[in-house]
Each structure stands twice: as structure tokens, then as C-alpha cells.
Design a protein that fits this description.
This protein folds into 3 domains: 79 residues, Udp-n-acetylmuramoylalanyl-d-glutamate--2,6- Diaminopimelate Ligase, Chain: A, domain 1 (3-Layer(aba) Sandwich); 211 residues, UDP-N-acetylmuramoyl-L-alanine:D-glutamate ligase (3-Layer(aba) Sandwich); 129 residues, Protein-Tyrosine Phosphatase, Chain A. It is α/β, with parallel strands linked by helices. The strands form 4 sheets. Strands 6-7-5-8-9-10 form a 6-stranded parallel beta sheet, sandwiched between helices. Strands 14-15-19-16-17-18 form a 6-stranded mixed beta sheet. A 4-stranded parallel beta sheet has the order 1-2-3-4. The longest helix is centred in the N-terminal third of the chain and has 15 residues. It contains 16 helices and 19 strands.
Length: 440
């Protein structure tokens, strides 16, 4: 079955598609995907039993030879999903062109995407990536959620390997784009910081080749250089200096990020000065798409983060800064710098290992230990990489403990409760630092 025919089937299914046989509600298209550790083809017939209207499966699979007329055989489920999403992106509005904004970066992608969604939604009907569904499965599924009512789409793209962004932009075909920043993350996959820049820069490459625009923090030397390297790239600038903006220092009474922007003060529900760039990016994009400035500011001020991203939570004993969804050297550095600026009677950082750093791992964890040593807060560390860093650099006086796992730290905190403190919780997703939260 070719893409045109598959697209007709998709429309017959009410433009509803899933790759998870457990998420069948009835009437949708199920697409079986196969990876190293899973094979959706094995669940295709169960998806049909659960109410799926049809199941797209790989040629040669048991489901393909089942004889069920609702089974659609294709050469590869992943390729079919990508082709279907690209076709929908091009045809979802009929003869009208849908504007798609592509978003990537090392840190702040999801928060920035949500801020952009909020700002643009003040004027337009927006479809955006849900949560962090930003990989080779999530991006096509996000595109397939676009409806005929959508006026703008915001698609977040993540990358762990050199050509991930190249493959994702070939599916979503962005008209304009934003790289939040480039930093040291997933070095095991990218090989080096230069590898990170090349990989993220594939968004700029696509837009330059197709006559689009990119929103660039011109105060970031790496992003500015990357944009200048690509001839014909149309740049829409923003930045602290460019926008005459400044960050208001946080206080116990006003712990959230505040920005002075010209004659305006913007009061957010975000924690950390590093989020200033995310706010300015959203406002820049809002201005570009002619969202009234007052409406854009109101949208930013109304946005409340969730899912342990730049999130503040008060418990009976402490004030928590939850940034435990992910961690890499750049995000860890700015989080600690921002935490150091906060005023509080007692400050405690609970920090977990940063993953996927390859040969650079110990050196990057040593840098974090050195930053802690120069700070005014206490720290508790979790994980094997921090253990190696402490062995290499020594244990600073303000590092009050090291634990092999977040479970062990949580158990220790339950027996030695912290009270009256501002507590930063941060670490890579695999360390599960959120397990410490009930003990705080």
C-alpha cells in the first residue's frame, strides 16, 4: 500500500493513530513499530481485538499473514509512520500551507515549547508536541495530531545521535526554527561538543535551504556563529542586551524569575535565571507572529511548569526547586549558578549523576564538585560518576554525603529530615532524583 492509500485509511480512522496497543480506544489506526527491544507486530492482532479499525504491520510478520482484511502490510512500520506524518503535514489544510516552527536545543526545549505554545495561543489555534514526545516516534505522532483547525504548529525535536535532527526535519519540514542553546549533553552519542553543534545545526541547515527564518539568541556566541555560517539564513534576533532586558534577583518573597523588559516587568512562575532566554524566545516569536505584546506577556505570566522542570514546590518543611527531569554539564552549571544567587536561610542541593558523557564524564563531574566547593550551599550527591569525581578531586566540606542511589538518599533523608531549607533537586532522568521528594 502506498502513502496516498495509507493516508485515505488514516482519514477513514478519523485521523487517529497510535503505536501503543494498550492505548486503543476504538476506531483508530494502529501502526506496529519494531525496535531493538520491542516488536509491535506481535501486538497487532490484539490491537484489532481491542477495537482498532486497522493495523499497519511489517511484511513477513505473523500478523501480515493472518488473513485478517483489517491488516495492512508495509515494508517497514517506521518508514510508513514517517511518510504518513510528512504527507499529513503537507495536506492537512488542503490547499493552504501550514506554518510549522521546529524547536531543538540542549536544554530548555520543553519549557520553551510550552511558553511558545502559550504565547501563540493568545491569537492562534496551535498544535504543539505533547510533553516531550520529541523523538523519531513522537515527532510523527505530533504531526498526525494536527487538525484542519490548526493555524500554527510547534514541533519539538530531541537528538541523541548525529543525524537525529536531520531525519526529524525531513518529516516535519519546518518553515522557521529555534535552537534554545547548544551544550555538553549526550556526548557519548555526539562524540564532542562540535558534534553537538553539527547535529543541532541541521535544523538551521534545513531552514537555510528552504528559505525560512530562525530565531537566534544573538547574545549566545555559539548560536550566533552557527547562524552566520549558513548563507542565506534569515535571522530574527533576540537576547538580553538586544531586548534591553535584565533579570531581577530572586528573593524569598519573590523566588520566581522576574524580567525587566524596557518599561515592563514580567513576573513568571519559572525558577532560575536561565529561563530568561526561554521567555525572551517566546516573546520574540510572539512578536514575529503579531501577537499583541500585552497578550504575550500575560500568557508567559500565566504559564506554570510541571513534570519537575523549573518547578517550585512548597512542602510542610521546605521549599523545593524541582529540576530533576534531566541533567547535563550545561544545564547543571546554570542551575547551580542560579541556585547560588537565591537568598535563603539554608540552601541544600541534591544532585544526581549526569549520564551519557562518555570519556568526559569524570572531568565534567569534577567541575560540578569544584563549583559546589566554591558555593554557599550544602550538597548531597548520588551516583557512581560523582563517586569517581570525589575520589579524583576530594570531598569539599559542604558536600555532606554521597549515596549510590536516590533510594538510599531518600531513606537517609527520612531518618535525618531537612527543615527550613530551599532545596534544589537535579539529576539525569535515569537517576530518578524525584524519589527524594517525599522525604523533603
Amino acid at each position: 500500500m502506498n502513502t496516498e492509500e495509507l493516508y485515505l485509511k488514516y482519514r477513514e480512522c478519523g485521523c487517529r493513530v497510535t503505536t501503543d496497543s494498550r492505548a486503543i480506544s476504538g476506531g483508530e489506526m494502529f501502526i506496529a513499530l519494531k525496535g531493538e527491544n520491542f516488536d509491535g507486530n506481535e501486538y497487532a492482532l490484539k490491537a484489532l481485538e481491542a477495537g482498532a479499525a486497522c493495523a499497519v504491520v511489517d511484511d513477513g510478520s505473523a500478523a501480515a499473514s493472518s488473513g485478517d482484511p483489517r491488516v495492512i502490510a508495509v515494508s517497514d512500520g517506521f518508514d510508513a509512520l514517517r511518510a504518513l506524518a510528512r504527507h499529513h503535514r503537507r495536506n492537512c489544510l488542503g490547499d493552504k500551507h501550514l506554518t510549522v516552527l521546529g524547536l531543538t536545543g540542549t536544554n530548555g526545549k520543553t519549557t520553551t515549547k510550552e511558553l511558545i505554545r502559550a504565547v501563540l495561543s493568545a491569537k492562534y489555534r496551535v498544535t504543539a508536541t505533547e510533553g516531550n514526545l520529541n523523538n523519531d516516534i513522537g515527532v510523527p505522532l505530533s504531526l498526525l495530531k494536527i487538525t484542519g483547525e490548526t493555524e500554527l504548529a510547534v514541533i519539538e525535536m530531541g537528538a541523541n545521535h548525529p543525524d537525529d535532527i536531520k531525519h526529524l526535519v525531513e518529516v516535519c519540514e519546518p518553515d522557521c526554527g529555534l535552537i534554545t542553546n547548544v551544550g555538553k549533553a549526550h556526548l557519548l552519542g555526539f562524540g564532542s561538543f562540535e558534534g553537538v553543534k553539527r547535529a543541532k545545526g541541521q535544523l538551521y541547515d534545513f531552514i537555510a535551504a528552504n528559505g525560512g527564518e530562525v530565531f537566534v539568541n544573538v547574545g549566545d556566541p555559539d548560536l550566533s556563529a552557527m547562524a552566520r555560517e549558513r548563507s542565506g539564513l534569515s535571522i530574527v534576533p533576540y537576547g538580553l542586551d538586544y531586548n534591553d532586558a535584565s533579570v531581577v534577583p530572586p528573593t524569598p518573597e519573590h523566588p520566581f524569575l522576574r524580567l525587566r523588559l524596557g518599561d515592563s516587568e514580567i513576573n513568571t512562575h519559572l525558577v532560575g535565571a536561565y529561563n530568561a532566554m526561554n521567555v525572551l524566545a517566546a516573546l520574540c516569536i510572539g512578536c514575529h507572529f503579531e501577537v499583541p505584546f500585552s497578550d504575550a506577556v500575560a500568557a508567559v505570566e500565566a504559564y506554570t511548569p510541571s513534570n519537575n522542570r523549573s518547578q517550585m514546590q512548597k512542602t510542610e518543611r521546605n521549599t523545593l526547586i524541582l529540576d530533576a527531569y534531566n541533567a547535563n554539564p550545561s544545564s547543571m552549571g546554570v542551575a547551580l549558578d542560579s541556585f547560588a544567587l537565591m537568598e535563603a536561610p539554608r540552601k541544600v542541593a541534591l544532585l544526581g549523576d549526569m549520564r551519557e558523557l562518555g570519556d568526559n564524564s569524570v572531568a565534567e563531574h569534577v567541575k560540578v564538585v569544584e563549583k559546589i566547593a566554591a558555593s554557599d550551599f550544602e550538597a548531597f550527591l548520588v551516583g557512581e560518576e560523582f563517586a569517581k569525581a570525589l575520589d579524583s578531586a576530594g570531598t569539599p566540606a559542604n558536600v555532606k554525603g554521597h549515596f549510590a542511589t536516590s533510594d538510599e538518599l531518600a531513606a537517609w533523608l527520612a531518618e535525618h529530615p531537612i527543615e527550613g531549607a530551599c532545596v534544589l533537586v537535579k539529576g539525569s532522568r535515569g537517576i530518578r532524583m524525584e524519589k527524594t521528594i517525599p522525604s523533603l
